[in-house]
Protein backbone atom coordinates (compact mmCIF):
# COMPACT_ATOMS: atom_id res chain seq x y z
CA UNK A 1 0.00 0.00 0.00
CA UNK A 2 1.37 3.43 -0.91
CA UNK A 3 -0.22 5.23 2.06
CA UNK A 4 -1.49 3.88 5.40
CA UNK A 5 -4.97 2.40 5.24
CA UNK A 6 -7.13 4.86 7.22
CA UNK A 7 -9.66 3.54 9.73
CA UNK A 8 -11.88 6.63 9.24
CA UNK A 9 -12.97 8.45 6.07
CA UNK A 10 -12.47 12.06 7.26
CA UNK A 11 -9.16 12.91 5.55
CA UNK A 12 -9.99 11.34 2.22
CA UNK A 13 -13.51 12.81 2.19
CA UNK A 14 -11.99 16.23 2.71
CA UNK A 15 -9.38 15.60 0.01
CA UNK A 16 -12.16 14.77 -2.47
CA UNK A 17 -14.86 17.28 -1.49
CA UNK A 18 -13.09 19.83 0.74
CA UNK A 19 -13.09 22.68 -1.77
CA UNK A 20 -16.86 22.48 -2.08
CA UNK A 21 -17.31 22.17 1.69
CA UNK A 22 -15.12 25.24 2.23
CA UNK A 23 -17.24 27.25 -0.24
CA UNK A 24 -20.49 26.08 1.44
CA UNK A 25 -19.15 27.02 4.87
CA UNK A 26 -18.07 30.44 3.59
CA UNK A 27 -21.53 31.02 2.10
CA UNK A 28 -23.21 30.09 5.40
CA UNK A 29 -20.91 32.41 7.38
CA UNK A 30 -21.36 35.27 4.91
CA UNK A 31 -24.99 35.55 6.07
CA UNK A 32 -23.64 36.88 9.38
CA UNK A 33 -25.59 34.18 11.23
CA UNK A 34 -22.96 31.70 12.37
CA UNK A 35 -25.64 30.08 14.56
CA UNK A 36 -29.31 29.50 13.67
CA UNK A 37 -28.73 30.75 10.12
CA UNK A 38 -30.80 29.71 7.09
CA UNK A 39 -28.46 26.74 6.48
CA UNK A 40 -29.58 25.19 9.78
CA UNK A 41 -33.29 25.48 8.95
CA UNK A 42 -32.67 24.08 5.45
CA UNK A 43 -30.72 21.11 6.82
CA UNK A 44 -33.34 20.42 9.48
CA UNK A 45 -36.07 20.33 6.82
CA UNK A 46 -34.03 17.98 4.58
CA UNK A 47 -33.18 15.66 7.48
CA UNK A 48 -36.79 15.48 8.67
CA UNK A 49 -37.93 14.66 5.15
CA UNK A 50 -35.23 12.01 4.71
CA UNK A 51 -36.32 10.26 7.92
CA UNK A 52 -40.06 10.71 7.35
CA UNK A 53 -40.52 12.89 10.45
CA UNK A 54 -42.41 16.17 10.96
CA UNK A 55 -39.58 17.82 12.87
CA UNK A 56 -35.79 17.75 13.10
CA UNK A 57 -34.20 19.93 15.79
CA UNK A 58 -30.46 20.36 15.28
CA UNK A 59 -28.33 20.53 18.44
CA UNK A 60 -24.67 20.59 19.42
CA UNK A 61 -24.02 16.82 19.63
CA UNK A 62 -25.61 13.38 19.63
CA UNK A 63 -24.96 13.31 23.37
CA UNK A 64 -27.07 16.45 23.87
CA UNK A 65 -29.71 15.06 21.49
CA UNK A 66 -30.19 12.04 23.79
CA UNK A 67 -30.32 14.19 26.93
CA UNK A 68 -32.82 16.62 25.38
CA UNK A 69 -34.97 13.71 24.12
CA UNK A 70 -35.21 12.33 27.67
CA UNK A 71 -36.06 15.75 29.11
CA UNK A 72 -38.65 16.41 26.37
CA UNK A 73 -40.20 13.01 27.18
CA UNK A 74 -40.52 14.03 30.82
CA UNK A 75 -37.90 11.60 32.16
CA UNK A 76 -36.45 12.73 35.50
CA UNK A 77 -35.59 11.76 39.07
CA UNK A 78 -37.23 8.54 40.25
CA UNK A 79 -37.53 7.16 36.70
CA UNK A 80 -35.72 4.16 35.28
CA UNK A 81 -34.64 3.92 31.66
CA UNK A 82 -33.88 0.61 29.94
CA UNK A 83 -30.66 0.77 27.90
CA UNK A 84 -28.66 -1.93 26.10
CA UNK A 85 -25.57 -3.22 27.93
CA UNK A 86 -23.48 -2.54 24.81
CA UNK A 87 -23.29 0.91 23.27
CA UNK A 88 -21.29 4.12 23.30
CA UNK A 89 -21.18 5.72 26.75
CA UNK A 90 -23.57 8.56 25.79
CA UNK A 91 -26.51 6.14 25.42
CA UNK A 92 -26.51 5.65 29.19
CA UNK A 93 -24.78 8.75 30.59
CA UNK A 94 -27.66 10.89 29.27
CA UNK A 95 -29.95 9.03 31.70
CA UNK A 96 -27.81 10.03 34.70
CA UNK A 97 -27.70 13.58 33.36
CA UNK A 98 -31.52 13.64 33.32
CA UNK A 99 -31.47 12.57 37.00
CA UNK A 100 -32.88 9.10 36.23
CA UNK A 101 -31.36 5.60 36.56
CA UNK A 102 -30.15 3.51 33.61
CA UNK A 103 -31.14 -0.16 33.82
CA UNK A 104 -28.81 -2.27 31.69
CA UNK A 105 -30.37 -4.94 29.51
CA UNK A 106 -28.62 -7.84 27.78
CA UNK A 107 -28.30 -7.91 23.99
CA UNK A 108 -29.61 -10.08 21.15
CA UNK A 109 -27.36 -11.99 18.71
CA UNK A 110 -26.85 -8.75 16.71
CA UNK A 111 -25.86 -6.94 19.91
CA UNK A 112 -28.94 -4.72 20.10
CA UNK A 113 -31.18 -4.52 23.17
CA UNK A 114 -32.96 -7.84 23.70
CA UNK A 115 -36.70 -7.34 24.19
CA UNK A 116 -37.20 -10.49 26.32
CA UNK A 117 -34.47 -9.29 28.68
CA UNK A 118 -36.10 -5.84 28.67
CA UNK A 119 -39.42 -7.37 29.68
CA UNK A 120 -37.72 -9.06 32.64
CA UNK A 121 -35.88 -5.87 33.66
CA UNK A 122 -39.01 -3.69 33.64
CA UNK A 123 -40.32 -2.30 36.94
CA UNK A 124 -43.16 0.11 37.80
CA UNK A 125 -40.51 2.90 37.66
CA UNK A 126 -39.60 2.17 34.00
CA UNK A 127 -40.37 5.33 32.08
CA UNK A 128 -38.42 4.96 28.85
CA UNK A 129 -36.44 2.60 26.66
CA UNK A 130 -33.46 3.65 24.52
CA UNK A 131 -33.12 1.42 21.46
CA UNK A 132 -29.69 1.67 19.82
CA UNK A 133 -29.23 0.87 16.12
CA UNK A 134 -25.82 -0.57 16.94
CA UNK A 135 -23.11 -0.50 14.26
CA UNK A 136 -25.64 0.79 11.71
CA UNK A 137 -28.36 -1.85 11.94
CA UNK A 138 -31.78 -0.65 13.07
CA UNK A 139 -33.83 -2.41 15.69
CA UNK A 140 -37.15 -3.93 14.60
CA UNK A 141 -39.55 -0.94 14.66
CA UNK A 142 -42.70 -3.07 15.00
CA UNK A 143 -41.43 -5.19 17.89
CA UNK A 144 -40.04 -2.17 19.80
CA UNK A 145 -43.14 -0.07 19.21
CA UNK A 146 -45.35 -2.94 20.39
CA UNK A 147 -43.22 -3.28 23.55
CA UNK A 148 -43.48 0.46 24.26
CA UNK A 149 -47.23 0.49 23.71
CA UNK A 150 -47.82 -2.65 25.78
CA UNK A 151 -45.84 -1.34 28.75
CA UNK A 152 -46.61 2.39 28.48
CA UNK A 153 -42.91 3.13 27.96
CA UNK A 154 -41.50 6.03 25.93
CA UNK A 155 -39.41 4.64 23.05
CA UNK A 156 -36.34 6.71 22.16
CA UNK A 157 -34.19 5.62 19.23
CA UNK A 158 -30.43 6.19 19.37
CA UNK A 159 -29.84 6.30 15.62
CA UNK A 160 -26.34 7.81 15.97
CA UNK A 161 -24.75 4.96 14.01
CA UNK A 162 -27.52 4.18 11.54
CA UNK A 163 -28.54 7.28 9.61
CA UNK A 164 -29.39 6.15 6.07
CA UNK A 165 -30.72 2.73 7.09
CA UNK A 166 -34.34 2.00 6.30
CA UNK A 167 -36.49 3.34 9.18
CA UNK A 168 -33.49 4.88 11.00
CA UNK A 169 -34.57 8.14 12.58
CA UNK A 170 -38.26 7.20 12.49
CA UNK A 171 -38.54 4.68 15.34
CA UNK A 172 -40.34 5.59 18.55
CA UNK A 173 -41.45 8.95 19.92
CA UNK A 174 -38.04 10.62 19.54
CA UNK A 175 -34.98 9.64 17.48
CA UNK A 176 -31.48 10.96 18.09
CA UNK A 177 -28.74 11.46 15.49
CA UNK A 178 -25.05 12.25 15.75
CA UNK A 179 -22.93 14.02 13.14
CA UNK A 180 -19.64 13.64 14.96
CA UNK A 181 -16.63 13.43 12.60
CA UNK A 182 -16.52 9.61 12.58
CA UNK A 183 -20.17 9.18 11.62
CA UNK A 184 -21.44 8.28 8.15
CA UNK A 185 -22.80 11.83 7.75
CA UNK A 186 -20.12 13.76 9.56
CA UNK A 187 -19.95 17.44 10.45
CA UNK A 188 -16.73 19.45 10.44
CA UNK A 189 -16.94 19.26 14.25
CA UNK A 190 -19.60 18.11 16.66
CA UNK A 191 -23.32 17.99 15.89
CA UNK A 192 -26.57 16.15 16.49
CA UNK A 193 -30.33 16.31 16.02
CA UNK A 194 -33.56 15.05 17.54
CA UNK A 195 -36.32 13.89 15.22
CA UNK A 196 -39.98 13.64 16.21
CA UNK A 197 -43.53 14.00 14.90
CA UNK A 198 -45.00 15.69 17.95
CA UNK A 199 -45.27 19.52 17.72
CA UNK A 200 -45.16 19.97 21.49
CA UNK A 201 -41.96 17.92 21.85
CA UNK A 202 -40.35 19.89 19.00
CA UNK A 203 -41.18 23.17 20.78
CA UNK A 204 -39.65 21.85 24.03
CA UNK A 205 -36.52 20.73 22.17
CA UNK A 206 -36.07 24.14 20.50
CA UNK A 207 -36.33 25.80 23.92
CA UNK A 208 -33.91 23.34 25.51
CA UNK A 209 -31.21 24.01 22.92
CA UNK A 210 -31.15 27.73 23.63
CA UNK A 211 -31.54 28.64 27.30
CA UNK A 212 -35.22 27.76 27.58
CA UNK A 213 -36.32 30.87 25.71
CA UNK A 214 -39.94 30.70 24.57
CA UNK A 215 -41.56 32.18 21.46
CA UNK A 216 -42.23 35.46 23.34
CA UNK A 217 -38.51 35.82 24.07
CA UNK A 218 -38.82 34.93 27.77
CA UNK A 219 -36.60 32.44 29.56
CA UNK A 220 -39.51 30.38 30.80
CA UNK A 221 -37.84 27.03 31.52
CA UNK A 222 -34.37 25.73 32.29
CA UNK A 223 -32.42 25.45 29.06
CA UNK A 224 -28.91 24.97 27.73
CA UNK A 225 -26.74 26.21 24.87
CA UNK A 226 -26.36 23.46 22.31
CA UNK A 227 -26.48 24.57 18.69
CA UNK A 228 -25.36 23.19 15.35
CA UNK A 229 -23.17 25.83 13.65
CA UNK A 230 -24.60 27.11 10.35
CA UNK A 231 -21.34 26.21 8.54
CA UNK A 232 -21.66 22.60 9.73
CA UNK A 233 -25.31 22.46 8.68
CA UNK A 234 -24.35 23.57 5.15
CA UNK A 235 -21.81 20.73 4.85
CA UNK A 236 -24.18 18.15 6.36
CA UNK A 237 -26.93 19.15 3.92
CA UNK A 238 -24.54 18.56 1.03
CA UNK A 239 -23.51 15.19 2.47
CA UNK A 240 -27.13 13.98 2.60
CA UNK A 241 -26.99 13.86 -1.21
CA UNK A 242 -23.93 11.58 -1.17
CA UNK A 243 -25.18 9.29 1.56
CA UNK A 244 -26.81 6.72 -0.74
CA UNK A 245 -23.63 6.24 -2.80
CA UNK A 246 -21.42 6.06 0.29
CA UNK A 247 -23.74 3.54 1.93
CA UNK A 248 -23.79 1.36 -1.19
CA UNK A 249 -19.98 1.32 -1.18
CA UNK A 250 -19.84 0.33 2.52
CA UNK A 251 -22.35 -2.45 1.88
CA UNK A 252 -20.21 -3.79 -0.98
CA UNK A 253 -17.14 -3.76 1.28
CA UNK A 254 -19.11 -5.54 4.04
CA UNK A 255 -20.13 -8.24 1.54
CA UNK A 256 -16.46 -8.72 0.57
CA UNK A 257 -15.48 -9.02 4.25
CA UNK A 258 -18.34 -11.51 4.87
CA UNK A 259 -17.12 -13.60 1.97
CA UNK A 260 -13.54 -13.61 3.25
CA UNK A 261 -14.61 -14.52 6.79
CA UNK A 262 -16.64 -17.49 5.55
CA UNK A 263 -13.31 -19.32 5.15
CA UNK A 264 -12.10 -18.54 8.69
CA UNK A 265 -12.91 -19.15 12.35
CA UNK A 266 -14.05 -15.50 12.65
CA UNK A 267 -17.74 -14.58 12.26
CA UNK A 268 -19.38 -11.31 11.27
CA UNK A 269 -21.93 -9.98 13.76
CA UNK A 270 -24.12 -9.89 10.66
CA UNK A 271 -27.58 -8.66 9.80
CA UNK A 272 -30.79 -9.83 11.50
CA UNK A 273 -33.52 -11.23 9.22
CA UNK A 274 -35.54 -8.43 7.65
CA UNK A 275 -33.31 -5.64 8.96
CA UNK A 276 -31.28 -3.02 7.14
CA UNK A 277 -27.61 -2.22 7.86
CA UNK A 278 -25.54 0.76 6.71
CA UNK A 279 -22.25 -0.58 8.16
CA UNK A 280 -21.17 2.48 10.06
CA UNK A 281 -19.00 -0.20 11.67
CA UNK A 282 -18.09 -3.64 10.39
CA UNK A 283 -17.74 -5.85 13.45
CA UNK A 284 -16.64 -9.48 13.62
CA UNK A 285 -16.37 -11.90 16.52
CA UNK A 286 -13.27 -13.96 17.05
CA UNK A 287 -12.10 -16.29 19.82
CA UNK A 288 -8.59 -14.76 19.87
CA UNK A 289 -9.06 -11.05 19.27
CA UNK A 290 -5.56 -9.96 20.28
CA UNK A 291 -3.94 -12.39 17.82
CA UNK A 292 -6.14 -11.27 14.93
CA UNK A 293 -5.64 -7.57 15.71
CA UNK A 294 -1.86 -8.10 15.83
CA UNK A 295 -1.83 -10.00 12.54
CA UNK A 296 -3.86 -7.29 10.83
CA UNK A 297 -1.74 -4.51 12.35
CA UNK A 298 1.40 -6.23 11.03
CA UNK A 299 -0.19 -6.05 7.56
CA UNK A 300 -0.86 -2.30 8.03
CA UNK A 301 -4.58 -2.75 8.73
CA UNK A 302 -5.89 -0.75 11.70
CA UNK A 303 -8.68 -2.20 13.86
CA UNK A 304 -10.69 -0.94 16.85
CA UNK A 305 -12.87 -2.47 19.55
CA UNK A 306 -16.52 -1.45 19.90
CA UNK A 307 -16.82 -2.03 22.82
CA UNK A 308 -14.39 -3.76 25.15
CA UNK A 309 -16.72 -3.93 28.19
CA UNK A 310 -20.44 -3.62 28.86
CA UNK A 311 -21.53 -0.16 29.95
CA UNK A 312 -22.37 -1.23 33.52
CA UNK A 313 -18.68 -2.05 34.06
CA UNK A 314 -17.78 1.64 33.63
CA UNK A 315 -17.09 3.23 37.02
CA UNK A 316 -19.61 6.02 36.35
CA UNK A 317 -22.41 3.40 36.44
CA UNK A 318 -21.04 1.60 39.48
CA UNK A 319 -18.59 -0.65 37.68
CA UNK A 320 -20.09 -3.87 39.07
CA UNK A 321 -21.17 -7.13 37.46
CA UNK A 322 -24.63 -7.70 35.93
CA UNK A 323 -26.38 -10.75 34.62
CA UNK A 324 -25.77 -10.00 30.93
CA UNK A 325 -23.95 -13.09 29.57
CA UNK A 326 -24.46 -12.23 25.89
CA UNK A 327 -22.97 -8.75 26.35
CA UNK A 328 -20.05 -10.09 28.39
CA UNK A 329 -19.18 -12.69 25.73
CA UNK A 330 -19.50 -10.20 22.87
CA UNK A 331 -17.24 -7.64 24.55
CA UNK A 332 -14.47 -10.28 24.75
CA UNK A 333 -14.77 -11.14 21.05
CA UNK A 334 -15.69 -8.10 18.94
CA UNK A 335 -13.24 -6.45 16.57
CA UNK A 336 -14.05 -3.66 14.10
CA UNK A 337 -12.44 -3.55 10.64
CA UNK A 338 -11.93 -0.37 8.62
CA UNK A 339 -15.00 0.39 6.50
CA UNK A 340 -15.81 3.58 4.59
CA UNK A 341 -16.52 4.77 1.09
CA UNK A 342 -12.95 5.97 0.51
CA UNK A 343 -11.23 2.60 0.79
CA UNK A 344 -9.95 1.60 -2.67
CA UNK A 345 -10.60 -1.81 -4.23
CA UNK A 346 -6.92 -2.64 -3.69
CA UNK A 347 -7.22 -1.79 0.01
CA UNK A 348 -10.34 -3.91 0.43
CA UNK A 349 -8.57 -6.80 -1.32
CA UNK A 350 -5.60 -6.29 1.00
CA UNK A 351 -7.92 -6.65 4.03
CA UNK A 352 -9.76 -9.70 2.65
CA UNK A 353 -6.45 -11.40 1.77
CA UNK A 354 -5.16 -10.79 5.31
CA UNK A 355 -8.41 -12.16 6.79
CA UNK A 356 -8.23 -15.30 4.64
CA UNK A 357 -4.68 -15.92 5.86
C1 LIG B 1 -24.58 4.97 19.74
C2 LIG B 1 -24.14 6.38 19.98
N1 LIG B 1 -24.89 7.18 20.76
C3 LIG B 1 -24.56 8.45 21.00
C4 LIG B 1 -23.41 9.00 20.47
C5 LIG B 1 -23.04 10.39 20.86
O1 LIG B 1 -22.93 11.27 19.78
P1 LIG B 1 -21.93 12.53 19.83
O2 LIG B 1 -20.52 12.01 19.76
O3 LIG B 1 -22.32 13.32 18.62
O4 LIG B 1 -22.19 13.27 21.09
C6 LIG B 1 -22.59 8.21 19.63
C7 LIG B 1 -21.39 8.71 18.95
O5 LIG B 1 -20.45 9.21 19.32
C8 LIG B 1 -22.95 6.86 19.41
O6 LIG B 1 -22.20 6.06 18.65
UniProtKB/TrEMBL annotation:
It holds the Pfam family DegT_DnrJ_EryC1. InterPro entries: DegT/StrS_aminotransferase (IPR000653), PyrdxlP-dep_Trfase (IPR015424), PyrdxlP-dep_Trfase_major (IPR015421), PyrdxlP-dep_Trfase_small (IPR015422). One of its GO terms (molecular function) is transaminase activity. The keyword Magnesium does not apply. Signal peptide: none annotated. The active site is at 183 (proton acceptor). This is Aminotransferase class I/II-fold pyridoxal phosphate-dependent enzyme. Belongs to the DegT/DnrJ/EryC1 family. GO terms for biological process: polysaccharide biosynthetic process. Keywords: Aminotransferase, Pyridoxal phosphate, Transferase. The modification N6-(pyridoxal phosphate)lysine is found at residue 183.
